[in-house]
Specification:
The structure is a single chain. With 214 residues, the protein is α/β, with parallel strands linked by helices. The chain has two domains: 134 residues, Response regulator (Rossmann fold); 65 residues, Arc Repressor Mutant, subunit A. The chain is 50% helix and 19% strand. It has a six-stranded parallel beta sheet with strand order 2-1-3-4-5-6, sandwiched between helices. It has a two-stranded antiparallel sheet with strand order 7-8. Helix 4 crosses helix 6 and helix 7 packs across helix 10.
Length: 214
């Protein structure tokens, strides 16, 4: 049954996937906008005031995680449902700590997305069952204090350490057996947390905190 009272924004920079989501969700909810980058998501949210934002955390300009964080800061009542092609528990941890209500891998079924949206609208949390145990373990791990009250995940520390050692994105991806896009995701999430903007600042941080030696 369609729920016209629930308004949804879809944010994904893969046009075909975004259009597929729009068509599918339109049968159940009112899809008020489809956007392909973070600034457009903010503009649409401010203007259209949706109930739910379905956001690809791999999206660029800015990356989907940062866009989701900013969305929750500006519009805390909007439910954030994150989707991704990556299955890393540390990415899910970042998503939930940003205020998300749901985390799904893109290999999930369409009906699972509806389940996640319904859960979000009821103020519940939803995690794709295929990675649920790993995510819960990661969420329960103690966070390591780094700078003041700021925190880094273990994966973010690995990426920063390798960057500080002079490794390229491609080399880090091969070392950690993840995609280059996932490396980029963790790099910029960590840089945002540490409030640094350059690779030189990353190296300085790594040396100061004993991650590498000069």
């Amino acid at each position: 049954m369609k729920n016209p009272s629930a308004r949804i924004i879809v944010a994904d920079d893969h046009a075909m996937f975004a259009e597929t989501l729009r068509r599918f969700l339109s049968a159940n909810y009112e899809v008020v906008a489809v956007v392909d980058e973070g600034s457009a998501l903010m503009e649409a949210a401010a203007k259209l005031k949706p109930d739910v934002a379905v956001v690809d955390v791999g999206m660029t300009l800015p990356d989907g995680l940062n866009a989701g964080c900013e969305l929750k800061k500006r519009f805390p009542l909007i439910k954030l449902v994150c989707v991704t092609q990556h299955r890393e528990p540390s990415m899910a941890v970042d998503v939930f700590r940003s205020g998300a209500s749901a985390f799904l891998v893109k290999s999930s079924t369409a009906t699972e997305l509806l389940t996640a949206i319904r859960a979000a609208l009821k103020d519940h949390i939803y995690i794709s069952p295929s990675i649920g145990k790993e995510v819960m373990r990661a969420l329960l791990e103690p966070r390591k204090r780094k700078v003041g009250e700021r925190w880094l995940t273990s994966r973010q520390r690995e990426v920063l350490r390798l960057l500080a050692e002079g490794k390229s994105m491609k080399m880090i991806a091969e070392t950690l057996q993840i995609s280059a896009r996932t490396v980029q995701f963790h790099k910029y999430a960590a840089m945002k947390t540490l409030q640094v903007k350059t690779n030189a600042e990353i190296v300085r941080y790594a040396i100061t905190h004993g991650m590498i030696t000069e």
